[in-house]
Amino acid sequence: MVKYIVKRLLLAVLTVLIICAITFFAMHAVPGGPFNREKALSEATLAALNARYNLDKSVPEQFVLYMSGILRGDFGVSLKTGRDITAIIGESFPISARLGVSAMIVALILGTVFGSLAALTRNQLPDRIIVFFSTLFTAVPSFVLATLLLLVFCIRLQWIPVWSVNSQNYVLPVISLAAYPMAYITRLSKTSMLDALSQDYIRTARAKGVSRFKMIFKHALRNSLIPVITYAGPQIAYIITGSMVIETIFTIGGLGSKFVTAITNRDYTLIMATTIFLATLMVIANVICDLLYKVVDPRIKYE
Prior knowledge:
Strand content: under 5%
Number of strands: 0
Largest sheet: none
Helix content: over 70%
Shape: flat
Low-confidence stretches: none
Order of helices and strands: HHHHHHHHHHHHH
Number of helices: 13
């Protein structure tokens, strides 16, 4: 077990380093720079700025200098605002985390319940209704759903205020973020539950007279959660770090909107810091999911 965890942690570190390298070199390969403006800066000013942020050096040298700073815990400052990037992430991430955690909790609970209900009522009316809506939410892009919700409930009906600093209403953003993962989890749960219900141990439990409630929730549901955990791990990390489209539509000042702004402004340091932050959460979530398999199914062996 310990050997497996060490291997996964080393692999996680290597994965983050590879992502950092790909992002860094791809970002610098794009034409333009962070100091390009409509009114061009003087050559002296541009040279001073490039020297200040090590942009006058070769790309490999910049990468080595940047990674050495990361290893010391220094993410640098924004090339556009001059603010410390750690402070930017510190104030933006809690907003995205609150939104993402709320959306994922809704998606996990409703997706598991609806998927299990669809499996238990296979080919009946509840199953067909659930399949219809899960297919609909899977097909509709999140930005389309978010725009429709904003138009109907905020502008037309005015039942829910638009998100602002003074009115932080998370209902519509949470629905927009939770719709797709909820639909996907519903489909996963249904397939896994149907597979679990067809296993020999379920037939044995039924033959021994085990109650339907105990058979479903103690045996079938527990074993059907493994595919859901596999999907939920990286999805939680992705949602928590901020949905770029949803945060932009609802003008939520989370980490996702900061990432969009950084790309638009070619703010190299902020782009790198956000990417590293997301990649780290992703690999941590995957490691946690692998360890949770043992909790859900004790028969799983780590090698």
